[in-house]
Design a protein that fits this description.
The chain has about 375 residues and is mostly helical. Helices cover about 60% and strands about 0% of the residues. The N terminus is likely disordered. Its main location: membrane.
């Protein structure tokens, strides 16, 4: 189907209701259908619009409009909800109305549609992998334009692979690079003796213990992160990823204070745990294997005592971000986060943890009189 043609049809249908410039006030725009200027239009008038102009719309969007009409028992529809739909924006009240009317939807599921091109089947697959509700899947399928593409996860993966290859050439080792005596001298990884160098709390993601470590993280980033970014956008997914990365290194500095940190597992686990309700069992097996490898490596005899191998606590830090901030971001598909109360609660919890970890790093190491490994 031609998504540009659909957009033009939607605009034409919206123009039938509001044949004026967008800058005109909403009250004036809705005057023919809302003569009393109440902000609502009657269900009867709304259905007459659907009958006259429904052929111009994509069937899925028409289905959403019908669900919106069926969901309201008061005989009226909020005009702003209608405007939000036609401009591909959804408010809380609109989402609740759709969910109430969702049980009345009787057309076939998106998965049952045939005759789709390869790109359309890919978009449909992403919709079913990332969104739990059929109405959201259809909404996403109709509105996705691949502009912009999922650039963040692809870019971060390419950079991580590039750094690994560079280190592999420099160290002349690609398997278990972490056992090389010069490995810890890299300026990117987190080391407890160098915790005052703030960039290390983030740049450690570009260092991996070996090709097996990198491979597992890359697979999870591409299989989970790219579809999530296609649905929720680079801004939301990059926030979850970076928040998981920072929480991972800070969790190590609090709970495993003598260990270094490498790898992007904090960000990966934030994405995976946020998406846990929808991922398939194959992904769960990969996550379990990667976490088990990290635990084994942490307690395996170190190649350069007294410094232990990298900590696995970054994984747990990423999980905590995923089940708090990440779940809120992914659950509220196409909604403004600033309108979500839980978003502000979990964001406050995250910021409190970050502040606590900063003060912990400043004072706790000296107060506890720890025997830290020597600087690299």
């Amino acid at each position: 189907r031609n998504k540009h043609a659909q957009h033009g049809a939607s605009a034409g249908f919206a123009g039938a209701v509001c044949p004026v410039e967008r800058r005109q006030p909403l009250a004036e725009c809705s005057m023919p259908f809302d003569p009393d200027n109440t902000g609502y239009i009657s269900t009867e008038k709304f259905r007459s619009l659907l009958q006259r102009h429904g052929s111009e719309l994509d069937p899925h969007k028409l289905e959403v409009l019908l669900a919106l009409a069926d969901s309201n028992s008061e005989g009226r529809i909020c005009y702003q909800d209608f405007v939000n739909l036609m401009s591909n924006k959804r408010s809380n009240s609109f989402r609740q109305a759709i969910l109430q009317g969702n049980r009345r939807l009787c057309s076939k599921a998106l998965l049952e549609e045939t005759g789709l091109s390869l790109s359309q089947r890919l978009i449909r697959h992403v919709a079913y992998e990332t969104l739990p509700r059929e109405i959201d899947r259809k909404w996403y399928y109709d509105s996705y334009t691949c502009c912009p593409p999922p650039w963040f996860m692809i870019t971060i993966t390419i950079v991580e692979v590039a750094f690994f290859l560079y280190n592999g050439v420099v160290l002349d080792r690609f398997v278990l690079q972490v056992t090389h005596p010069l490995y810890l001298k890299n300026a990117l990884l987190y080391h407890p003796q160098l915790r005052a160098q703030a960039w290390r709390y983030l740049t450690y993601i570009f260092m991996h213990a070996g090709i097996e470590h990198l491979g597992l993280n890359v697979v999870l980033q591409l299989l989970v992160g790219v579809p999530l970014e296609m649905v929720h956008g680079a801004a939301r997914i990059s926030f979850v990823y970076v928040a998981g990365v920072v929480a991972g290194s800070l969790a190590v500095s609090v709970a495993d204070m003598t260990a270094p940190v490498v790898g992007s597992s904090g960000g990966v686990y934030a994405l995976v745990s946020a998406h846990l309700a929808n991922i398939v069992m194959a992904d769960l097996r990969r996550v379990s294997f990667e976490f088990g490898r990290a635990v084994w490596l942490r307690f395996h005899p170190s190649a350069y005592p007294p410094c232990p191998h990298p900590s696995f606590m970054a994984h747990l830090g990423g999980v905590m971000v995923g089940i708090t901030l990440g779940v809120i971001i992914l659950r509220n598909y196409e909604q403004r986060l600033q309108d979500q109360t839980l978003w502000w609660i979990f964001l406050s919890i995250y910021l409190i943890f970050v502040l606590f970890a900063i003060f912990w790093n400043i004072f706790a190491y000296s107060l506890l009189d720890l025997k830290l490994p020597p600087p690299p």
